[in-house]
Amino acid sequence: MKRRSTRLIHPDTPRPKDHGAVKTPIYASSTYLFESAEAGAATFAMQQGRPHYHEPAPYNYARLGHPNLETVEAQLLAIEGGEQGVHDALAFESGMAAITTSLLSLLKPGSVLVTTTPLYGGTRQFIRDFLEPWGIRTYGLQPSSTAEQVLKDLDGAVPALLYVETPANPTNQIWAWDHLNALKNAWSSTGQRVLLLADNTYLGPCWQKPLEQGADLSLYSATKSMSGHSDLVCGACVGDATLIRGIRSWRNKLGNTASPFTSWLLSRSLETVELRMEATQRNAQILVPRLREHPGIQRLEYPGSGAMVSIWLQGPEDHTKAWKFLNALSIIQLAVSLGSNESLACHPASTTHSGVDPSERRQHGIDESLVRLSIGIEDPEDLWEDLLKALEAAMEDEVR
Ligand code: PLP
Fold first, then answer.
1. Could you tell me where the beta strands, DSSP code E, fall in the chain?
2. Which pLDDT belongs to residue 20?
3. Global pTM?
């Protein structure tokens, strides 16, 4: 099998025949011709898992599949180190589409969902505002939670799914894979299949491979480092081929399949994902030790790899210092999202996590003084000067 970097540039899909194009062109077609009625019927029969007796048409309708989707999904499988036949990949129109479609496919009213804490605000709100009213029981883990304690708290109900973010957005809270696998194995020993799903957006596909760590599925807001240029919203789900088959069927019904243009843009970005992520990590590793030394920073969390840095500013327990810091930045852009070529900074408590209950935010360390930094590929000395200037602005009152 070709190695990962080669598979990203030369995905395991047939090269398009059109005019000898080196890249898959954008197939802006909503529907596809059948060479015969038999071929059309065979395609639909195959999708519905019914027997078919003719060669199926390769595509029938773009919500269900198209050449750009096939190309990008082969790259998604490659970046995750997935094996054809064992694993499969799906591309969606957003990260939330990947997450919600996967959870809807795997849970049903009455199921128990256990999650790490904190979670990305949008995911937390989907669980609270949709899954819970829909009849899903949910449970948020503490770092010290044991399998027995969780079962006791759930009155013996066995979780169907363990959903994790490690590192967590926005605090960089780490959950050890050994701990997560031990929970999954202990609950599985009751005889119920327990699935482990990981949202790997924060660290990204180069620095952590959830499937190798024991996860059944790896989920992404591909809007972030996979795209990397802040010009696209999309999502991905990669993992166990049987689970993916079920999720694909839900994607067909919910209708959030990545479009030809979205797939093409993501495919173009994935060719350089390793190069871009190495550059952002290099910059983060230059800046983190300097930030740690700065008296304006009370706490810093960085997992040692990747480009996401969480800083808690010194000072009163309100947003004043954080907002002063953000307003004084000029090269680092004040915007949500992450994993881009340009560095970004945001105040999670009032933006990405503003929809989470304030008491829950505080419990999980999403304080008013927290700033989330996503380090880009600019010159690190320019970034450092910008950070220093903003830290001085935030500390101004104390200096006077
Ligand atoms: N998961 C994480 C960790 C995120 O940070 C985000 C977005 O910020 C999402 C999921 C949702 O992805 P999207 O905005 O592409 O729908």
1. 87-92, 112-115, 137-140, 161-164, 195-199, 217-221, 235-240, 297-301, 308-313, 333-334, 344-346, 370-374
2. 85
3. 0.96
